Every structure is written in structure tokens, then in C-alpha cells.
Amino acid sequence: MLRITKPLCQHHIQTAIIGAGVIGLAVSRALSKKGHEVLLLEQATSIGSETSSRNSEVIHAGIYYDRNIMPYKSKFCVEGKQLLYQYCIERDVPFKQCGKLLVATDADQRDSGLPKLVEYAKGNGVHDLKIVSMEDIKDPYSDVYEPNVKCTGAVYSPSTGIIDSHSFMQSMLAEAEEHGTTLALNCRVEGGRSAGPNVILTVDGEEMVCDNVIVCAGLHSHKIASDILSQSNQQSSVSKQNEARIPRQYYAKGNYFTLQNQKQPFSRLVYPLPDPRGGLGVHATIDLSGSTKFGPDVEWIVDVVINPYDIDMNVDPHRAKSFYAAIRKYWPDLNDDNLVADYSGIRPKLWHPSQ
């Protein structure tokens, strides 16, 4: 690992990647394996400390994405799932293909919602879903046995799983570094501009000339890309219409609560049907140690131009009230006072429910 210094900043870099989360690491790995010179810039003291470590650590089957609006996201989720499982096996990254139940909690969801979900998933290329009854779920000899789940029926997704995200990121970093990637921690990109065929980045007050710049900065991607484009437009008198290339960004905060003082209730993931307001509802996720956490909920950050550094990442304990209500729809035996505020994450979005 390397801390950027002034002599390094004077060098000509072939490819600079901004952000050492899971996306930046994956891009670094792929490019360095193809022989590219890669400098991976990360403002924090460690890799993957923001969005990449503040999520549910789920390997999704590819069920939900609207293929008409996000055709590549639905396509790559299905293909990426298989590649990710294969990668975990080859690189000894801890994972478990535990499966997931998407539960209906009333007759309408059972009779209408579940079949629609299965057909929707088929259109995305997910053909292994099956509708199961409450009797199946309560049958100790079935492959969907979950005695603590209350529902009117469910869809079972056998290819959904969980992963140790930190081990995954460390594995990709090791592989990238094996092929020549240089990681620079504590390096904040403060701006940049185009200069002919190159991009000049300002990193901690120093300038660096790059052939290519790839922004993988998560919550900060919008600002960094906008700043670079804005400075480039000012330098070259390019029409401001070019700024439309950077879409508007919204932030959806998701809060998590962990189960305490009660036996772990599930052996697989348990999800309600998708929340029309955004997100997948307050679901139950197990980790590789067997612990259970619930979340995320959806808390839209009202100020759409807010600086990501100013977002309060603490979980408001008072939100537990809505969690109890949501969880008890499919697990009524949850005891009072057994949820403890854990962590939160921010999902960068290109849309808002008001649109």
C-alpha cells in the first residue's frame, strides 16, 4: 500500500480509479489483470469503509430489477450472481447459498403478488423460484422449513445467498495488487479537469496527470464527476449542456437493528414483498455466524444537495417502533425490547418516489 507523495503526483498515471469500495476494487482487479497501470485512490484509512460495508451482504438472485428501465442491471445481477459464487469458491471467500423466502402476509399478496413476482423474475432470467404454501414452510421435512415464519404463502429463491463482504474486498485487493495495482489510502480527490486527451486530478493539493479516470466513489461520485466536468467546461468553454451527462442523485438511508436476548429464529433470509416506496422492506438477514439483523428501512434524505459528509449515520433508536410492527407481520414471536440499533447505510439513487 502506498500513500501518495508529491513525487508520485508528478508522474503520468495511465488509469486512476477513485474509490476503493467493492466497485473500485473490482475495476482495479479487472484492469490490472489486463496489464493496465492502475492507481487506486481512497480517501479513508481503509478500503470499503462506506457503502460497501454498510449493507445486508446478500448475493441477490436478480428478481426485482425492472428490465425495461434498468436492462443491464437485471442482466448483470443474474450473470454476476453465478460469477460471484464461482469467485468465492476459487478464492476461498466465505459465503453460504442459504436461500430466501419472500413472504405474503395476506390473501391478496398470496394470490396476486406471489405469482406476479415469479413471472417478473422469469423475465429477468431467474427460473428457479417456486411458490410454497404455509404448510410447506411448517413441514420439517421440506427444503423450506422455517417454523417461526408466519405467512399466507411465499416464494422461495434457492440461489440467494450471503457473503463475507470484507473478505471479498480483501481478496479482490490482493488479486489487484498481485497484478500491479497501487493502493493509495488517505488520498482525497479535491477536483480535476480535462487537459487535451488527459485528465488532471487534484489530490491533497497536488496535481496528477491521468490518461483515464474512473469514478467509483459511491456517495461522492456525483460531486467528483460534476466538479471535473464543470472545471473542464470552464477551461474549454464547452457548452453547459454537457453537465446533463451527470444525473441527479438522491440518498436513501437504510437503518439496521440487531436481534438480542432471543434465539435466532431463521436459517435463511426472510423478506416481505418489495416496498413500493423503495427498498425491499424490513427483511431478516442472517450472517455467516448465524446472527440475525433486520433492515434496512427507507429514510429518504430530504435535502437532495446535501454533502454526504454531513449525513448522520447514527440509527435513531425510536425507529425500532416501526421495525417491530413490520417484523411481526411475518415473525409475531419477536419479544419487546429485543431489537438494538446497529448501523446504517446510504443507497445512492437516481430517482425519488416523488418522481
From TrEMBL:
The protein in question is named L-2-hydroxyglutarate dehydrogenase, mitochondrial
Native organism is Skeletonema marinoi
Q: Name one GO molecular function term.
A: (S)-2-hydroxyglutarate dehydrogenase activity
Family, as annotated? Belongs to the L2HGDH family.
Task: Output the lineage of the source organism.
Answer: Eukaryota, Sar, Stramenopiles, Ochrophyta, Bacillariophyta
Record SUPFAM superfamilies: FAD/NAD(P)-binding domain
Q: Catalytic activity, per the record? A: (S)-2-hydroxyglutarate + A = 2-oxoglutarate + AH2
Entries under PANTHER family matching the protein: L-2-HYDROXYGLUTARATE DEHYDROGENASE, MITOCHONDRIAL
- What is its cofactor? FAD
